[in-house]
Amino acid sequence: MYLYTSIFPGTFNIIAGPEAKVKHKQKNILLVFWMPIGYNSSMALYIDVKYLGFVSSALPLFKRKSDNLWNFRCPFCKDSEKKASKARGYIYARSQELFFRCHNCQYGTTFYKFLARVDPTLHKEYMQEKFLDSKGEATKKEVPVIPQFKAPVFGLRPKIKLDKISDLDSQHWARKYMQGRMIPVDKLHLFYLAPDFKRFVEDMGSEKHKDLKPDDPRIVIPFYDEEHTLIAFQGRALVDNKIRYITIRMNSYSGPLIYGLDRVNKDSPVYVVEGPIDSIFLPNCIAVAGSDLNRVSAMFKNPVMVFDNEPRNKDICKIMALSLSKGHRIVIWPDDMKEKDINDIVGSGKDACSIMMDNIHSGLTAQAKFAFWRKA
Ligand SMILES: [Zn+2]
Question: Nearest to residue 12, comparing CAs of 228, 156, 205, 204?
Answer without folding.
Answer: 156
